[in-house]
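TEACHING EXERCISE
Course module: macromolecular assemblies
Task: Read the component lines below, then compare them to the predicted structure of the full complex.
Student: A.B.
Group: 4
Components provided:
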Amino acid sequence: MTVLAEVLRRDRVFDFVLPEPDFAGGLDTRHGPILYVEDVTVAFDGFRALDRLSLYVDDGELRCIIGPNGAGKTTMMDVLTGRTRPDSGSVWFGSRIDLRRASETAIARGGIGRKFQTPTVFEHHSVMENLELAMAADKRVWPTLFAHMDSADRDRLAEVLALIGLASLERQPAGALSHGQKQWLEIGMLLMQNPRVLLVDEPVAGMTHQEMEQTGELLQRLAGRHSVIVVEHDMAFVRSIARQVTVLHQGSVLAEGTMDEVQNDPRVVEVYLGE
Ligand code: ADP
Ligand code: MG
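Instructor-supplied answer key:
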């Protein structure tokens, strides 16, 4: 690939060329879903990672996305977070915010939080400080944060600490937490920014059985207040939390329904057996 071709790749749109949509005043879910992905295609050198994908997620929903490797799950999250631009199709946040025209930064600040697989906590800071720093990133008052926490901020912090089950460890350095606890802390850090939608990629990879159970409880508690989209390979885990499940295959939706419905769908069986 030439340098020019690299610079002009569609998934490398520069943030500064995009006008920012009005996130604060613009999110409207009164008449429909919080996320609309409609007929979205993303091609890499002619290969369609997403192929006319359509997906709708309601406000407060907990949605599990499954599908074999290469099905397009990560690409779908990249499209929702502005990291990859679709070649065609529409992507809306509520009925007014066109995510194709929003920068990655604006989308993150505007209410779509994403948790990657590897936790990126500040190991040398305490659990509590990690949450404070996440709140600061949101308010853009980094250097002066600690002097500026008001009582609402403190309440929020305590609430998130309890929600992620780390209240008794608030003074521990994050580096001393178990793998599972670090994952919860990172979810907590996302929560400090009050996202409307949380995208979680393989949350239970590498967790103990007990940590998996607690993660399932946490995600179910978050639903309702947030829309939660979980991509996960562990079928036992998906079954334990699933309400509506979407199966992706070759860049589009193969099946959608309850876990029982999709697991008994012959097309789904075939795709998983063929893996
Ligand atoms: P999943 O997360 O479901 O495993 P991905 O979304 O990562 O699937 O990938 C879907 C397909 O698109 C795969 O075949 C992958 O190799 C391809 N793909 C993903 N990102 C790129 C990229 N940046 N360049 C080329 N091909 C890509
Ligand atoms: Mg993936």
